[in-house]
Amino acid sequence: MTRIITTSKPSASIVDSVSQRELSNAAFRLAPSTSGSFKTPEVRMMNLAKITLPWLVLAAMISAPVAYFWAKRNTISTHTVQSRLIYNKTYLGSPLYEGPGIYTLLSEFQSKEAIEEVIAKRGLTASPSYISRQIESDVSRGDGSISVSLTWGDPEEAAAIANDLVEVGIRRARLIRDAGLEQHIVGLSRAIENIHLPEVNRLKEEYAELNRKLEVPDVRVAYDEWKDKLQVLEKELRSEQAVLQAAEEQVSRLESGVALVNTSLDSSAAGYKPKGLSPAAVVNRIAALEKDINEQREFVVLESKLESKESELARIAPLVGRGLVSQSRYNALASEVDQLRLQVRGDGSMVDLEQELERLNRQMDSFGDDPMASVETSREATRLKTELDTDVATSRILIEHLESSIGYLEPRLANLESSMEAAREIQRKLAASQTGLDQSISLSEAMETLKHGDAHSFRVVQPASPTLESESSNFKKLFASTFLICMIGLSAPVMGLGFRQVMPKPAETLADRMEIAEIGNLGRGDMKAQRPGKSLAKVTDAMRLTAVHLQYLTGAMTTRLVHVVGLSGRAATVGVVRKLGLSVAELGEDVTVVIVGGQPKAEGEIVEIEVNEEYPDNYQVVLIHESRAEEILSHLQNEVHCEGLILVTGLSCKERPEIELLSLKSNSVVLSAPAGGRITRAADAVVGGLRRFNFPILGVIS
After folding, report:
1. For the chain, which terminal residue's Cβ has fewer other Cβ atoms within 10 angstroms, N or C?
2. What is the tens place of the pLDDT at every residue in 508-519?
3. Domains plus CATH for the chain?
């Protein structure tokens, strides 16, 4: 069993007893190369350069003339010819059709099929891949100008091959263009058949259904026609109302005149014979004038009606040719217009007639109380009144007829007007669909014509001709490659020998590579875990031999404080130091193993001591849960009481300042990388620092 005892009792200082750095003569005999320097990769590279540089200079001096004469003898001169083309791009059909890209078409000039066709035509022996590498194509800014270059030995043959390549490439590019156009034309035809035509037919059927519902040939034409007819009727109604009002006013005047004449007849005295016309003649003339005036008024009404009929005839004349108005209706309306034209005739101005009538009326007033004149006047006035009454009745009948016609048209026109919005929307959609159909058809026809032109293709503007610097040679390239091959061939053995001298040999141990003494060589079997206090029967011979070497190296020291630095991990080094301490205790030495770092088992306990029951007097393990070198040294001074060997370990190589400070105060260092453990970059830095500042390294446990 192992007992754990925690103490804080002060004791005499062990570190303060160190007076000098001294190692025994036996230690120097065991580690004769400890004064050598540790070889870093930079040092090895410097050594390699020192060894191989003279031989490399000699290899270069030999390779340069060999490469020059070989390149001079095997140089081949080539010539470059260039052909210039123009790409004809059209924007017809954009954005629906953009055509193949210029780079897609230009790739046909270097295609395997085009090159094989030129090889067959010219009887060339070169492979298509070789000719493809000799062809270069370039597109200038704006995708307008293209240059195709060919590098060949004979300039005339190069120009002929380049022209053939351009010809074949243009033909193949046009085939690709035609295939793309054909696909797009097929797509347009399908769109016309599947999209545009069904939509146009559907809208036409919808418009026809609306016409059938309203019982008209065309709702828009019928609406305009009925609207015009309503306006004509309203105009006729206004004219007839004006005629009726004038007739009623004249009847009123005649009635007052008859009453006046009748009154004068009753109160007449002796007759008066005026000069000039007789009363009978005046009365007859007045009757004639009134008749003419009435005829003129009828002419005005007829002229208004003729004007409306002529406007209606002019409006429906274009519709007859489109089939929207029947020919019979047009002929009937034309006959009515001709009849009205024959009726509209007059003998003079109505104003003159009215002025003369007014003058004769004043003359009748001047006749005085002539009984004969009064009688005739009364009779004529009565006759005129009768005629005017007839005209008034006729006007009223006509007005009623017009009002009835207007009353019939207005609701039908309102019904058409309510459907006009739907009709306009259908017509708008129909016009848009018809426009899309027409555009698709015209675009398809236009694209058919593109197949026979240069659109989306190339046009040669300059046949193949030599460039400004057409001739070139491969001298530099051949010289460089030959020089490089010679250098590699001559320097490979030298570099191999140099690497063998500066690089560590695979069979060397860690101690040989680091040029320090090997205290022990432990395997994985020697590293198996062993609980503290267990019998030493399981301690291997390699571990015991390591303990003997360590006792031999430290036996002549006045202060036997050794810092064991773990290069391949803390756990492996701590295990080795525990077993190594037990092995030294078995040899009869007083041993104290100090393990620093780690976490305490009980809170607040910084120092713990483990005592082995088998060797309670000469072996103990002290656990110091600190990582700073100053604290560790303080606890070593105050807590550790041992006159024999003290082994301190547990610090990580990442804590380089603590390792170097503890190594400086320990005055003896042992490196530990047991069982071939991997040495980290941090461990390399620690070893380099210890060797650079001449810390006393006893050896290595590998």
Report:
1. N
2. 666 776 777 888
3. 2-38+515-701 (3.40.50), 43-75+481-502 (no CATH), 77-193+451-473 (3.30.70.1130), 219-418 (no CATH)
